[in-house]
Design a protein that fits this description.
Helices cover 22% and strands 25% of the residues. With 264 residues, the protein is α+β, with helices and mostly antiparallel strands. The chain has one domain: Endonuclease/exonuclease/phosphatase (Deoxyribonuclease I, Chain A, 4-Layer Sandwich). The strands form 3 sheets. The protein has a 6-stranded mixed sheet, with no helix packed on it. The protein is globular.
């Protein structure tokens, strides 16, 4: 089973790029974040033509939005809300074999890494805290689960282009890293990509639109993640980060797709 995740930054604007991903990588399941479209307007038809007959979408106009698109049927599906908001950031579904798949979009958190000065940053920290408690109280480490998405935090030193320069930049601050690390530890989540790529190697999934030449400057961050619970660790057989997708024309997302293969 090949699972892909991508913050597509508007599914309608980048449908041609999504279809390119599907043609080139042939994932069985695609999880999206920042779909930026209400459910009634989600462009289902071209995806159904490619075999993605099963879709669990949860979106709103212009902002946020998450989706799970699958060639495989769902045994069940649900939506989870956080921080008293219904802002379309978490959907999950059960795939064949009893695998529960979560597509998550954690808030970016604004620019100022101080929850007292910046309510967006406070929201982000609360979101991660609530998720951590939910995993601990509502889910078991023995359950076969995969969580993917734009978590908007780069936890390791080599998940950013410069650890020293980004310590005070939202996405790599010590408080964010500590909270995401606590969430990972909550039920023993395995970082599926770092399962294959040692933490000594640089690894990115996002490059800012502000860079004149993103590839040359290479000031990236690894914000997009795939985690699996311990029962699926030995089922991991491969991974891929489609760095080249950051340059896909005509209008690339600032994130690139991340994929893992599971022998299930």
């Amino acid at each position: 089973m090949r699972i892909a995740t991508w913050n597509i930054n508007s599914v309608r604007m980048r449908m041609d790029l999504l279809l390119r991903l599907i043609d080139e990588a042939q994932p069985d399941v695609v999880c999206l974040q920042e779909t930026k479209v209400v459910d009634a307007d989600f462009p289902m038809a071209p995806l159904a033509e490619k075999g993605y007959a099963h879709a669990h979408v949860h979106g709103m106009k212009s902002y946020n939005g998450v989706a799970i698109l699958s060639k495989l049927p769902f045994a069940s599906r649900d939506v989870q809300h956080w921080c008293g908001k219904q802002d379309c950031r978490h959907v999950f579904a059960e795939l064949p074999g009893g695998i529960e798949l979560h597509s998550v979009y954690i808030p970016a958190g604004g620019d100022i890494p101080d929850p007292e000065q910046n309510e967006k940053f406070a929201h982000k920290l609360q979101f991660v805290d609530e998720m951590t408690e939910w995993w601990t109280t509502r889910r078991s480490p023995d359950r076969r689960m995969v969580m993917v998405g734009d978590l908007n935090i780069a936890p390791l030193e080599n998940d950013v282009w410069s650890h020293k320069e980004l310590l005070k930049i939202v996405s790599h601050t010590p408080v964010e890293v500590a909270k995401l690390t606590a969430m990972q530890a909550s039920i023993g989540w395995v970082d599926a990509v770092r399962h294959f790529v040692p933490p000594t190697e640089k690894l990115y999934t996002w490059w800012s639109y502000r860079a004149k030449d993103w590839a040359a400057s290479d000031r990236g961050r690894r914000l997009d993640h795939i985690w699996v619970t311990p029962p699926l660790k030995d089922a991991l057989t491969g991974h891929r980060i489609l760095r080249e997708a950051r340059g896909w024309e005509p209008k690339p997302s600032d994130h690139v797709p991340v994929m893992v293969d599971l022998d299930v």
